Amino acid sequence: MNAVDMARMAYGSGSAPIRTQRGTEYAVFADVTRRLQSACSAGPDDFSALASAVHANRRLWIILAADLADTDNGLPRDLRARLFYLARFVDHHSRQVLRRELGAEPLVDINRSVMRGLAPQGKAA
């Protein structure tokens, strides 16, 4: 067995598709959004699932906000500002969801909108 064969065994074959940065962002939003949707569907009986999903969503938006604030971010300034505003809204709304004052459905809607912007042409969120 030569070094190439050993590397293939260790790291897998090159047949796995490579994701773009945009595709990775879409996948993360899709995963978090599925968790939020599932927790919303479960109703008030499973608040721990809702709290966990809301926490994961907040973490995602905090990371996104930090990236948007970075001067090296390549997005247009206006789009960065609008997304940063959404991050602040998500944080504020999430606190109200965790206090059981509001529902999480608006968080799902926001994530779906972002996913539509990240999706390749012709793919629905």
Description:
With 125 residues, the protein is mainly α. Helices cover 72% and strands 0% of the residues. It is built from five helices and no strands. It has helices at residues 3-11, 21-42, 47-69, 77-98, 105-118. The longest helix has 23 residues, at 47-69. It is globular.
Question: Any descriptors?
Answer:
5 helices, 0% strand, 125 residues, 72% helix, globular, single chain, mainly alpha
Topology record:
Blueprint (H helix, E strand, L loop, with lengths): L2 H9 L9 H22 L4 H23 L7 H22 L6 H14 L7
Helix pairs in contact: 2-3, 2-5, 3-4
Note the overall shape.
globular
Main pleated sheet: none
Series of secondary-structure elements, N-terminal to C-terminal? HHHHH
Unreliably modeled segments: none
Give a brief description.
By secondary structure, the protein is mainly alpha-helical.
